[in-house]
Amino acid sequence: MMKRAIILILMLVITPFFCLANAVKNVAITAIVEHPSLDQIRDGVKDELTANGFKLNDNLNVQYRSAQGSSATAAQIARQFVAAKPDVIVAIATPSAQATVAATKQIPVVFAGITDPIAAKLIKNWNPSHNNVTGVSDYQEIGPQIEFMKKVVPNVKSVGYIYSPSEINSTVVLKNLQNELSQQNISLVAVPAQRTADISTAANTLKGKVDLIYTTTDNNVVSAYESLVKFANENKIPLLASFPDAIERGAVAAYGMSYYDVGRQSGKLVARVLNGEDPGNIKPEIGQTLRLVVNTDAAKKQGISLPPDVIGSAYKVIGQK
Question: pLDDT at position 11, please?
Fold first, then answer.
């Protein structure tokens, strides 16, 4: 009788732990818009969770929604996700991250692909937040980017930059470009484009004024990248980027982070939270992998020949050498 009682007690104590271990985790992922870079972050997060033992439709449910470029929709999605009470919300790109952090102080939030999370007021500094927020930034020092521009276009005297005034990630890069380029006697022609539909018009204002166009992961610009490539091809202006995904879409050269790797890095933080860690104790991180990729076919279309040392040092070369 005593043995049966002990077994019953042990079952009552141990069973909740088994249930906890096998409990289904719910992750909600939101992005401001769908384009290859942000999609790779999402895929990287999911793949990293799988690598950490979470299986879709088994012990993991993932819900994904895009705001389709609308900040108002991003705020609506954030409120709906908070009401659903997932275990973690992953917010990709600055507008979605800002909307999500504004919507909840309780549900863990892991931001991903945010250029300057401090300027965006997602975190106060790079130390653990001691609240519900952590994540991975795609911040890159602007100095190496300018050196990259000078290697691809050695005689560059003027740089074109199209940006969304409402995106902090883009205005931060604008400020850094202005400071660094002016010190090297290189002029910057910056053109605002509030909407994706404005990109072509903005590009036309650069005709005859710049030696190259530099692009970052401004969500409006990336969403309309093919129109920018068309302009660059027609006007023989090299198109450079800070994100490797631009190469497949027609940029001449790109030096920056693999956004899939940013997703995998973010997924590690999500897994830690799902496994019980407090997001407020997890130090925010910066993406770790930078790669140079080039497109020799795009270079021909845009009127330049890539220097041999640039091709030789590239992680990946697309087109005929």
Answer: 43
